[in-house]
Design goal:
Elements (H helix, E strand, L loop, with lengths): L1 E6 L4 H13 L5 E6 L2 H8 L5 E6 L5 H14 L2 E7 L14 H22 L8 E5 L12 H21 L5 E5 L8 H5 L7 H5 L4 H13 L4 E2 L3 H12 L2 H9 L3
Parallel strand pairs: 1-2, 1-4, 2-3, 4-5, 5-6, 6-7
């Protein structure tokens, strides 16, 4: 049985990946949707042509992750694509943030993503794909978004290194690094702070970001960066000292 696994499949980018991949693949038997909100995933599944399996689970819960691992051992599927979209961010001063929310970002954005990837790789074969949702926040430190940016730097670095490790097995990894995307993400992120105005001006449509991510994955690219403004930001982060960029960003709030 050939399957696609998508985490964070109850909203935002995860839903967009589910709908677009559903339209693209003919050689996949099932698409597995994973998130905490079962009702939201069942609603998404109504619009999909493929057989879907809805798995309502908390990726930060070790017991639930182990049950998923047991499911893989029982079903022994061929995972043609793993899309790790689950994650969240909270803006605001680090010292004033709730420790549980800050650690929750690390647990979900980094630890759960790593564990899910590690569990799925043994069920992949030649030409399987892994898409990891990083962020343009991975390109440099982000004051007032410190933990989130750090977690996405982890995802970006981890994905690029994993891409090289898996290349001899013809398994391809793409880190998706979008700027702000028009999803419910900011409903959570901005409850303790607000993003830069320039970020809102660069807000991208989720369908376009996902479409390019899938195309870049097909082309075996290590990263996917959508939009001229974000590509320019990536270039600046490479050639200009981060201290200088951070000073400029301070006056752009």
């Amino acid at each position: 049985m050939n399957i696609i696994v998508i985490t964070g499949a109850s909203s935002g980018m995860g839903v967009e990946f589910a709908l677009q991949l559903d339209n693209i693949f003919d050689s996949v038997d099932e698409i597995w949707l994973i998130a905490r909100r079962k009702e939201a995933m069942l609603e998404v599944a109504q619009y999909m042509e493929h057989t879907t399996r809805v798995l309502d689970m908390d990726l930060t819960d070790d017991a639930q992750m182990e049950r998923f691992h047991q499911l893989l051992r029982k079903e022994k599927p061929v995972i043609r694509m793993l899309v790790n979209c689950a994650g969240y961010g909270v803006m605001g001063d680090f010292s004033e943030g709730k420790c549980s929310e800050l650690l929750g970002m690390v647990d979900l954005n980094c630890r759960a993503l790593t564990k899910m990837t590690h569990m799925c790789i043994p069920y992949m074969k030649k030409n399987s794909r892994i898409i990891q949702l990083a962020s343009s926040a991975a390109f440099l430190p982000q004051p007032d978004f410190a933990v989130y940016a750090a977690t996405k730097s982890y995802v970006y670095s981890f994905s690029r290194a994993l891409s090289r490790e898996l290349a001899p097995r013809k398994i391809y990894v793409t880190a998706v690094c979008p700027g702000p995307v028009d999803t419910p993400f900011f409903n959570i992120a901005e409850k303790n702070g607000s993003t830069l105005a320039v970020k809102k001006l660069s807000l991208a449509k989720a369908d376009k970001v996902v479409r390019q991510a899938i195309a870049d994955s097909y082309k075996k690219r290590e990263r996917s960066v959508y939009g001229g403004l974000i590509k320019g930001f990536e270039l600046l982060a490479k050639i200009i000292p981060h201290s200088a960029i951070l000073r400029i960003m301070k006056y752009m709030k």
